[in-house]
Amino acid sequence: MAFNIVSLSLRRDKLYLSKRMTLAEKLALVVLVTCACAVVSTASPLDPDRYFLVEAEPRAQPEDYRLNDDVWPTHYDIEIKPYLEQEGNKAQFTFDGSAKITVSTQKQNVMQIKLHMARMDISAWSVTRKSDNTIIPTLPQTYDQETQILTLPLSSALQANVEYVLSFTYVGNMDDDMHGFYRSYYWEDGVKVWMGSTQFQQTHARRAFPCFDEPRFKATFQLKINHKTQYNVYSNTAIVGTAVAEVGRTLTTFGVTPSMSSYLIAFIVAPYQINDRDGMGILARPQAQNQTQYSLDVGIKLLKALDEWIDYPYASMPAMTRMYMAAVPDFSAGAMENWGLLTYREANILYRSDDSTSMQQQRIATVISHEIAHQWFGDLVTCEWWDVAWLNEGFARYYEYYATALVETNWDFEDQFVVAQLQSVMQMDSLRSTHPMTHPVYTQAESSAIFDSITYNKGAVVLRMMEHYLTTETFKTALRAYIKDRAFKTTRPEDLFSALNRYDPNARSYMEPWTVQPGYPLVTVTSHDTGFTITQKRFLVNEPDHNEQTAWPLPITFATKASEFSITRPAFYTGMTFEIPMQGASDVEYFILNNQQVGYYRVNYDAILWGKISKALHSEGFGGIHVLNRAQIVDDLFNLARGDVVPYGTALEILEYLKEETEYAPWLAAVNGLTTLSRRIHADDEKLFAAHILDIFSKAYDIVKFQAPTATERRIFTYMRQYVLQWACNYGHEECSKAAVAEFHRYHQNPSVKVHPDLRQVVYCEGIRKGSMEEFEFLWNQYLTTNMATEQLLILQGLGCASSSELITIMLDAITSPHVRSQDKSNAFTYVINNLYTLPHVSRYLQQNHANWAASHGSYANVASAFNNVLARLKSDSERDVISAFIESNKNILGQAAYDSIKTGLEDYETNKQFTLRNRDEIHEFLDNKINGGAATILANVSMIVGLLMLVLAR
User: Fold this and answer.
1) Which of 17, 395, 567, 722 has the CA that lies 20 to 30 A from 311?
2) pTM beyond 0.90
């Protein structure tokens, strides 16, 4: 009943309930209906990774969350009968299921069988001996709600090496939380069309059928789906048979899968259509078929490229006669590597050149590459447990860049990888709260949380580091051997190290410490007449004076002139301190460590070397310093200043070189550093900071210009333009703002002629920021009526730029409403709070609408997350005090976990405030001298700072 009400309120042909109602009133009504529905909904909580939920303390011993190894499955026969509408006494969004699991044991005296199940009601179960169907006497089952483990006690022990069959009949639920076998929908001619899809990683196959839901329990699967005849069905393998099940229903049988983990099973029940060629098919709703061609083309090329690179053809895997990739409207992850049936958010697979940005096209290509790479690294060879998920995800992230580069050859993936992967993960990995790549996990929440940037980015970064050490050809040879060795098995890091060690006996000793130790080193270089002294110390951005003695084997390369930056094969050094001897060391133009940032560490130099680097950066051609090392220097300086290692004045003076920078990688590193700095600039210095931003971006703006990309420009130049225009307009660049607003007004007047996709982000944002309710309603209507998921994301970014309290409130109402899908709510909220002037309005909204927010987002943990994201950006003590008073007076409503989380956010606010006050004088002095003191003062300051530091060093 509740879902029918929502459906009626959202019919596309009745979006505007009354012409006399304002947009705010309409959204408020939808929010009211949504919350009424949420109160009666029994859906499971939302994904902690996506919504930053507060993790409750485990209510069982860690080992109790894991199955024992008494019994192992070898084969599953599963039949699913979904009800996407009510049929007789069968409730809508439920399914009937039956499962037969063939198991055996190699142990003696096994008197019970443990396996997983969740969100289902088992009506009958039995255990029989497979050879003769003899029934094994059993006792009443028990179930642990916390661990989701079902225990089946037996009256007599299982015999070793004898096959048994566990049989279950049950009823499951198709929830709307994008986990298990869940429901999704799309609109067709104003009518909501329901469909079913799956997401089982990490621990949700147990919601579709009872199973041994851990990666190590590999088995073969045969699936049957009893479905309404008007629906199409898809699974991992090809259809091997169909039969009439009953009037209006078909029983479809799929081929037996290879031996695989339960989380890789997938199936879809939907009136989808397919665009297929050469063994590859893209599945999508009918109206989106015109968005599938690029995915099909690039998918075919990527599969061929990876077939050749890994030298283990996908088609040689049993039953993998084709590969389907499906676009799912509601999808919790970005995509999922289910063997033979890859599933994606629509925005990550559906593309049209006239309606998607260049970056969105790259995102689609790289996500497809990532998921195809998983067919080997994850599906064929699977991490034994989630504590080593990097053996799946690190490889997939690596190929996301380097396999796509084999197909899209002009997108400069090496430049992008360093900043987007290596430098970005360094942020998380510089905190005490980080964890090593190999890290114990037990609970569902822990299993989900391990899928973070350490597992993905750092995993890929360490693999790239080893590739440069071993050489690409040796690395490729070793990985080919690893895949063949572990095919159809699970894997641990020791298996990978063993494969690498066959080709270099030092591989394990060099690689393993980077996987089992958290964090990374700060390498400090001190110069003297006969060479350079190198020391290492763990970099903790908030604890520069710590005494921890962690050490890593350091991959060292260096350059003293332009030609040496091409040398990227490192020599590994061990120890906390060592020497690099060099004749005439004091005479080199510069000494820069870590060529092309192959190694995973930061570098600080003594004053003499920083002075030389600064001089080179400010000279013609940047002194020949490689573009990736320029990006490295930019990122290191921002973070060394943030960590109180290098004075902010010194860092900002050196970074003035950016006024002449024309390459994407250094600018992206700068944008990342400036974003963090902008949140810590003292409120009284924001005008000076804005003038500084406009100054350093001025030449870059003149180079990229406010224009659509040309046919011949480099892809990363197009990306650079998007960032430069965004920052210029955000900080009041008059020409940028004027051009963006004019383009928005032109589009408003004639929506049939769209804004170029690569200009939409800045045009939509500036049009809304400088516009009124009329512009907001126009763009909101475009959001409601577009058929493109990629366009919806661009519009949400634009709407997030609203600058009046009324429009901010309407935007937050929209996020709370069902119009913004659950998968997009978190991003939409981030777009709003990234505009600092919205923060007081957002804070007030959350205080006044906390119950609505909790109901529509899943729990009060999401309220806590929203407040903490506000506090992380806030610069107002008075607003901080209001939030503090609010949580104290509403502690019982919030609940202890959410209350504690916001208390931590308030403590973090104080830490950020102290950081701002501690660095305020130096940052203010730099900005004031630059903006008010003129060029002569800046040059004098550079000379003075470098000179003083050199004098101190000499003493």
Assistant:
1) 567
2) yes
